[in-house]
Amino acid sequence: MNVIDKDFISKLLGDVEEAINIISQHILKPFKNLTRPERSEIRYYIIVLAEALTATGYHIVRRFYSIKPETPIHSFKILVEKDLMTESEFNDIVKLLKLRNLLLPRYWVIDDKRIYNEAKKNFKNIITFIERIRDVFEI
């Protein structure tokens, strides 16, 4: 097994936490009270969150387990197989990745209410996952 780049993972996990914090602040407001920039910021930080989690998963799987995943979802499946991620965490991250995939190519036709409702769902599993990463790798 190889060694992960703890500074790189720490930066990515910081991005995850920042994105969750910003999204969480916005979703405290009722949807109808969100400004256009706030709705756009929610979209943006969902993408940031998904990208940081993807990079984290790829890095750990490639560097620590010396496995080359075929897709982001495959990297998270490997983490489940290696008991570094629970099925529940995996399912939440897959939903987030699918939401991100809707945002990027079809950014102009996205239903902001749907994005808001998805963001209102709890980030608890993602937070638990990144805390485990910090503990396991002593970051």
Overall description:
The structure is a single chain. The chain is mainly α. It has one domain (6-136): Up-down Bundle (Four Helix Bundle (Hemerythrin (Met), subunit A)). The chain contains six helices and no strands. It has helices spanning 6-26, 36-64, 72-81, 87-103, 112-120, 124-136. The longest helix is centred in the middle third of the chain and has 29 residues, at 36-64. The radius of gyration is 15 Å and the shape is elongated. The two termini are 18 Å apart.
Write the layout of secondary structure elements.
Layout: H1 6-26, H2 36-64, H3 72-81, H4 87-103, H5 112-120, H6 124-136
Helix pairs in contact: 1-2, 2-3, 2-4, 2-5, 3-4, 4-6
Q: Cα-atom Rg, whole angstroms?
A: 15 Å
- Proper CATH architecture: Up-down Bundle
**Average pLDDT number:** 93
Listing every helix as H and every strand as E from the N terminus to the C terminus, the arrangement reads HHHHHH
Highest-level CATH class: Mainly Alpha
Decide which structural class fits the backbone.
Answer: mainly alpha
Indicate how many domains the architecture comprises.
1
Task: Give the number of DSSP strands.
Answer: 0
> How would a crystallographer describe the biggest sheet?
none
Q: What name is given to the CATH topology?
A: Four Helix Bundle (Hemerythrin (Met), subunit A)
Low-confidence stretches: none
SS summary, helix count: 6
In which range does the helix fraction lie?
over 70%
For this structure, the quaternary state is: single chain
Spell out the CATH superfamily.
bsu32300-like
